[in-house]
Predict the structure.
Amino acid sequence: DAKTTQPPSMDCAEGRAANLPCNHSTISGNEYVYWYRQIHSQGPQYIIHGLKNNETNEMASLIITEDRKSSTLILPHATLRDTAVYYCIVRYLRGAGNKLTFGGGTRVLVKP
Amino acid sequence: EPEVTQTPSHQVTQMGQEVILRCVPISNHLYFYWYRQILGQKVEFLVSFYNNEISEKSEIFDDQFSVERPDGSNFTLKIRSTKLEDSAMYFCASTLGQRDTEAFFGQGTRLTVV
């Protein structure tokens, strides 16, 4: 699975949009971009995923550049409960199952 | 909303003792996983399990570890002879299918080996 690079930490103001970047310059054509988050040592929680088109769900939006070498997770209106470590993961959906390879992630602190 | 449940939430054991960590995956899911997270470190994949056999394992998952699905609902991780370095949060996860996009994680078991 392709390696990802994320900033180690970032702050965000409550009520504002949080834009979390991720670089995955070695991504291959059939690898997906996934985002999970982990709130204070709880189990990781799925947020969103995409292949090449932008995606949106009730939690967030995912913007993938045209060359797919980077992406941005957008939390449209950050709340204090969004304080967490956010992981960008690139992976195949291969037959061996759903193994996720976590990196260091971005520690997001939402401030009032 | 369906959830993965893990018991106990915290277990303390003496070095050299056997421990069994228990998980109840989401009822219609077919693929099961264990991950661990040593304090302050990354979440690491241990093993995946499907159709009553291991489908993939990491190099962390050595002979001291085993997994089992003893009945239709439980999924267990056994550590035969615990070491101090096994102290970590252990997360169970499940997915509906092999190409399923969303893995559901439990809240974890904090294992402390003393």
Notes: The first strand of chain B starts at residue 5 and ends at 7. Chain B touches chain A through 28 residues (CB under 8 Å).
